[in-house]
């Protein structure tokens, strides 16, 4: 009897440790509501940011506003991304992205990718409710690419005066990439709570 009770308690503890707290955030600037998820001790937006600021550089993929509303959000240059999160939230640093990856463990990309929205067999298992979607990118020449195939999210961490670190996930991969890119490219934004 004691053994069954111990196993039951252990099972409940494991389930509670893996359970993620979900919620929502209403952006007071435009009234849009975003899903949120707590992973480890961080609270993340569980959708790409779709806020249209009054200034800065941002784009709907292929200049099609339907892509924004399909939860892919806008693509922002780095300077705009640095100032686009709502009050109480911020653009994550590379260290905060690293902490997220450490919390979700092995096969981070598969665990973070949404269950649909990725090309070919690239959908993930969305184990933590992060629902990463492949918003593609915009290059400085105005070309859009990789929509449905890859997602790129800015970090607030500079690599140099002209470049900053980002998190990348591909439909064909089970692992994420963290690297740096010129700041004037257009990438997606996920905000993390202060």
Topology:
Layout: H1 2-18, E1 21-26, E2 33-39, E3 42-45, E4 58-59, H2 65-72, E5 75-76, H3 78-81, E6 89-90, H4 94-104, H5 108-112, E7 137-138, E8 144-145, E9 150-158, E10 163-170, E11 177-182, E12 192-193
Antiparallel strand pairs: 1-2, 2-3, 4-5, 6-12, 7-8, 9-10, 10-11
Structural class: alpha+beta
Low-pLDDT parts are 4-19
Placed side by side, the strands forming the largest sheet appear as 1-2-3
* Mean of residue pLDDT values: 90
Cα end-to-end separation:
46 Å
Tally of structural domains: 1
DSSP helical segment count = 5
Instruction: Give a short account of the largest sheet.
Output: 3 strands, antiparallel
Helix proportion range: 10-25%
The number of strands is 12
The helix/strand order is HEEEEHEHEHHEEEEEE
Give the CA-based shape.
Answer: globular
Report the sheet-strand fraction.
Answer: 25-35%
Compute the CA-based radius of gyration. 18 Å
Question: How would you describe this structure to a colleague?
Answer:
- The protein is built from 5 helices and 12 strands.
- Residues 4-19 have low confidence and may be disordered.
- A 3-stranded antiparallel sheet has the order 1-2-3.
- The protein is globular and about 35 Å long.
- It starts with a helix and ends with a strand.
- A hairpin with a 5-residue loop joins β7 and β8.
- It has 194 residues and is α+β, with helices and mostly antiparallel strands.
- The chain has one domain (22-193).
């Amino acid at each position: 009897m004691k053994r069954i009770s111990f196993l039951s308690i252990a099972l409940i503890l494991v389930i509670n440790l893996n359970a993620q707290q979900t919620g929502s955030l209403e952006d007071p600037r435009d009234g849009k509501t975003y899903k949120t998820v707590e992973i480890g001790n961080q609270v993340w937006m569980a959708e790409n940011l779709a806020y249209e600021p009054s200034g800065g550089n941002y784009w709907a993929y292929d200049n099609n506003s339907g892509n924004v509303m399909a939860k892919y959000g806008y693509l922002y240059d780095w300077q705009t991304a640095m100032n686009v999160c709502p009050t109480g939230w911020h653009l994550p640093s590379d260290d905060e992205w690293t902490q997220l990856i450490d919390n979700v463990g092995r096969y981070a990309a598969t665990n973070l990718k949404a269950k649909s929205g990725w090309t070919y067999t690239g959908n993930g298992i969305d184990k933590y409710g992060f629902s990463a979607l492949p918003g593609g990118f915009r290059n400085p020449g105005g070309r859009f690419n990789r929509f449905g195939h890859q997602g790129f999210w800015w970090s607030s961490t500079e690599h140099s005066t002209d470049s900053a670190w980002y998190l990348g996930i591909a439909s064909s991969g089970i692992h994420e990439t963290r690297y740096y890119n010129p700041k004037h490219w257009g990438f997606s934004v996920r905000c993390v709570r202060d």
